[in-house]
Amino acid sequence: DADVTQTPRNRITKTGKRIMLECSQTKGHDRMYWYRQDPGLGLQLIYYSFDVKDINKGEISDGYSVSRQAQAKFSLSLESAIPNQTALYFCATSDSGTGKINEQFFGPGTRLTVL
Amino acid sequence: SQQGEEDPQALSIQEGENATMNCSYKTSINNLQWYRQNSGRGLVHLILIRSNEREKHSGRLRVTLDTSKKSSSLLITASRAADTASYFCATEASAGTYKYIFGTGTRLKVLA
Using beta carbons and an 8 Å cutoff, which residues of B are at the interface with A? Predict the structure, then answer.
């Protein structure tokens, strides 16, 4: 969905490096999510935010941190990247102000490789 | 562990046939959703069924929900090559949290 953008789309980094993945949305949604997907598996929730002042841990938050700089921006940081963080990372949004609060809109993903 | 488990893990059918995939979950839910993912891309929402609904249709999609068995099925009728994708069910970690748990997915391949 072009309304949810992620940068970069691909990133190769080395063990121990700190990196940031960014997500921006023009949908005006208040809720934003970060997921990771390992090959052949489903998505695992890393962090989620219901508004600018709200940050919540998901299933697998260890080794990650987030920042909700504005309603439209939600960044994911890997403090010290390790090889098992190699995965596809997705940002998603949803809108609590409509009757479709549960419907999530996903970005195109960031493919991260940690060497 | 994943809340939702899809079955089968992979499915290969001929164009025009129907495809059925199943999802089982563990906790009480307010609703269950199905998403499609084309290879390496973001997920796209297909349909949501509420806990008080037993069946829902959207175009060629038919979803059923059996809360007593904690299971749902997604039927795609008259499949097309463009339906080739992975399909995931998603439920809330617990009802009302808006914290979603995705299943492991069914990889559907529709042969032309």
Answer: 2, 4, 31, 33, 35, 40-45, 48, 88, 90, 92, 98-105
- Sort out which chain A residues have CB atoms less than 8 A from B2's CB and list them: 42
Phi, psi dihedrals of residue B58, rounded to the nearest 5°:
-150, 105
Q: Tens digits of per-residue pLDDT, B6-44?
A: 889 999 999 999 999 999 998 888 899 999 999 888 999
Per residue in B68-93, pLDDT (tens digit) is: 999 999 999 999 999 999 999 999 87
Length of chain A: 115
B contacts of A104 (beta carbons < 8 Å): 35, 43, 45, 90, 100
Q: How far apart are CA A23 and CA A33, in angstroms?
A: 10
User: Nearest Cα to A63, choosing from A99, A24, A31, A89?
Assistant: A89
